[in-house]
């Protein structure tokens, strides 16, 4: 009987690490992502940093840069043209979302029945949110939550009737508001700074290695894989009753 | 605490209000309005109304760009040319109004009306720009310098259209010259462009660089069948992606042969061609004689001349003979008459 206990205890400690590996170097299950991450030599502009290991194809990387992205028919120009400095951050964010193989710990199922997946509360470094907010101060938008309430009557989103175009700070008073409400809490504004190992960068210099690999590793190993834990607990209790 | 809050509110308000408005980005417009404020109105408007009128005018001009956003009419940006047209039109209208020397209520009415017309003109200019000059490229990437009306900043907008600019099919005869032209009409309007590069494409994954430089055309003289195949031209930018990619599918057709028949016709052909090249305008009557210039003509003329001489000779001879004969005939007739008369006289 003791053997069983030891085995279960061993499993209990191993399980989190084993489950954690499944969260590393993976791609989301969506229409545009690849099945598995791999090298891509023809990525476009802001997506180039992920060339060594990417979840996006060359054509996806190109489409990520369009004013009205073909990926989601979402128009960034709903209040006129964005300043180039602001547009750059959005392109980087879409590239991060489409190309990064390090989002595993934050992938969630969209709904329990369907196959689609999304990310939730990916912790972006403080500098990332701040620079994004700062460079978009002179660009315009008309809503504080971009997730819903758009006028889709003409194929791409337009400002709803009574929504007036104002500079970004009017609808996103702080950098955290921008990061979190742009895509329905896909991102979270982390208080951590870059190189702390506790937050992800939405973009990095192509010459440097992907700094998000280590961060994903950290979050993957500490994440409690609750399904496995509870199963083991139930099994252990069951066995304890038996013996 | 107090002044800091006020500053914050002021800063926020600055962010919220439409800051400059398109026309006000131009220094000449600002100066014209200042001159109106400091020079014209003090002498043409009651002091108590001066400030209010001036503020209304400034507010109206600042709001010229308060137009609905739509990809057909206005996207918050204009180019240098549209700005220039609009500014000059506006200044002209202001000058006309101030030159008339009107004052007080008349001034307010006329100036308001002028501003209404100018705003409509501005709207038209902007719509025309949006339709015709905004991102004129139909493919590839163009870097267009634009002015943002919200903050008067002039920056490069990246106009991204469908990535590939297509395939051109080029047919060239052997031993003639092949010219591949990579230039599109918007290339001269774009900024941030670097070099044209031409590659020879072999199979699916390998290419060799044939030319790189500022020239948009690749010329190959006296092509041979080995030059047929696929070529790719690429126009680079200062950013990472290319501005234009065009593929050329080159087919080398058999050599053109110019037909060689009789010498006359060939000389005719060369002469006619020579005349074409020089551009001499020949009248149709001249041509036949021009065509038959050489010895054959002269020979013909000589023969004709000879024939004529001969004929003349014959005629002369016949005439001479006739005269002679005639003379003889006359004599004989005379003598016959004479004998007759003599016979008659004898009876």
Automatic annotation (TrEMBL), chain A:
Residues 1-19 form the signal peptide. GO terms for biological process: cell adhesion; fusion of sperm to egg plasma membrane involved in single fertilization; sperm-egg recognition. Keywords: Disulfide bond, Signal. Residues 26-201 form the Folate receptor-like domain. InterPro entries: Folate_rcpt (IPR004269), Folate_rcpt-like (IPR018143). Pfam families: Folate_rec (PF03024). Belongs to the folate receptor family. This is IZUMO1 receptor, JUNO. The lineage of its organism: Eukaryota, Metazoa, Chordata, Craniata, Vertebrata.
UniProtKB/TrEMBL annotation, chain B:
Coiled coil: none annotated. SUPFAM superfamilies: Immunoglobulin. InterPro entries: Ig-like_dom_sf, Ig-like_fold, Ig_sub, IZUMO, Izumo-Ig, IZUMO1. One of its GO terms (biological process) is fusion of sperm to egg plasma membrane involved in single fertilization. Residues 167-253 form the Immunoglobulin domain. GO terms for molecular function: protein binding involved in heterotypic cell-cell adhesion; signaling receptor binding. GO terms for cellular component: acrosomal membrane; plasma membrane. Keywords: Membrane, Signal, Transmembrane, Transmembrane helix. Residues 1-21 form the signal peptide. The chain crosses the membrane at residues 302-324. Belongs to the Izumo family. This is Immunoglobulin domain-containing protein. It comes from Suricata suricatta. The gene is LOC115279950.
């Amino acid at each position: 009987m003791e053997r069983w206990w030891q085995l279960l205890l061993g499993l209990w400690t191993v399980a989190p690490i084993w489950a954690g590996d499944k969260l590393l170097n993976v791609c989301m299950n969506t229409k545009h992502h690849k099945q598995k991450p791999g090298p891509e030599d023809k990525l476009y502009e802001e997506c180039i940093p992920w060339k060594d290991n990417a979840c996006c194809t060359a054509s996806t990387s190109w489409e990520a840069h369009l004013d009205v992205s073909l990926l989601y028919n979402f128009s960034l120009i709903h209040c006129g043209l964005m300043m180039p400095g602001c547009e750059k951050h959005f392109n980087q964010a879409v590239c991060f979302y489409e190309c990064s193989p390090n989002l595993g710990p934050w992938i969630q199922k969209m709904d329990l029945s369907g196959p689609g997946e999304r990310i939730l509360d990916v912790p972006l470094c403080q500098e990332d949110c701040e620079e994004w907010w700062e460079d978009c101060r002179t660009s315009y938008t008309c809503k504080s939550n971009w997730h819903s309430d758009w006028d889709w009557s003409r194929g791409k989103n337009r400002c709803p009737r009574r929504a007036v175009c104002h500079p970004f700070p009017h609808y996103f008073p702080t950098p955290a508001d921008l990061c979190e409400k742009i895509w329905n809490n896909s991102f979270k504004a982390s208080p951590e700074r870059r190189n702390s190992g506790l937050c992800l960068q939405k973009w990095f210099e192509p010459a440097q290695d992907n700094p998000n690999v280590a961060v994903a590793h950290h979050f993957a190993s500490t994440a409690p894989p609750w399904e496995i834990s509870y199963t083991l607990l139930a099994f252990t209790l069951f066995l304890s009753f038996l013996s | 605490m107090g002044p800091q809050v006020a500053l914050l509110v002021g800063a926020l308000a600055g962010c919220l209000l439409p800051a400059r408005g398109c026309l006000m980005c131009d220094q000449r417009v600002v100066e014209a309005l200042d001159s109106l404020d400091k020079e014209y109105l003090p002498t043409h408007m009651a002091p108590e109304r001066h400030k209010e009128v001036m503020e209304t005018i400034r507010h109206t001009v600042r709001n010229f760009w308060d137009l609905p956003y739509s990809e057909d009419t206005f996207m918050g940006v204009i180019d240098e040319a549209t700005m220039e047209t609009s500014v000059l039109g506006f200044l002209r209208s202001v000058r006309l109004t101030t030159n008339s020397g009107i004052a007080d209520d008349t001034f307010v009415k006329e100036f308001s009306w002028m501003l209404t017309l100018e705003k409509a003109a501005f709207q038209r200019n902007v719509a025309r720009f949006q339709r015709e000059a905004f991102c004129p490229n139909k493919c590839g990437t163009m870097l267009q310098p634009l002015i943002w009306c919200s903050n008067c900043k002039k920056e490069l907008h990246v106009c991204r259209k469908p990535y590939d600019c297509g395939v051109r099919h080029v047919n060239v005869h052997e031993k003639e010259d092949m010219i591949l032209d990579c230039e599109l009409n918007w290339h001269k309007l774009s900024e941030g462009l670097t070099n044209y590069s031409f590659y020879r494409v072999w199979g699916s994954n390998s290419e060799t660089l044939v030319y790189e430089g500022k020239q948009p055309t690749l010329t190959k003289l006296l092509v041979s069948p080995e030059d047929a195949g696929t070529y790719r031209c690429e126009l680079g930018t200062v950013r990472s992606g290319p501005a234009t990619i065009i593929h050329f599918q080159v087919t080398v057709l058999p050599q053109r042969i110019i037909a060689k028949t009789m010498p006359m016709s060939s000389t005719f052909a060369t002469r006619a061609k020579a005349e074409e090249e020089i551009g001499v305008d020949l009248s149709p009557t001249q041509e036949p004689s021009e065509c038959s210039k050489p010895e054959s003509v002269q020979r013909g003329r000589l023969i004709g001349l000879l024939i004529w001489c001969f004929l003349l000779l014959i005629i002369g001879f016949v005439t001479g003979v006739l005269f002679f004969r005639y003379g003889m005939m006359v004599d004989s007739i005379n003598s016959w008459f004479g004998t007759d008369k003599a016979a008659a006289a004898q009876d």
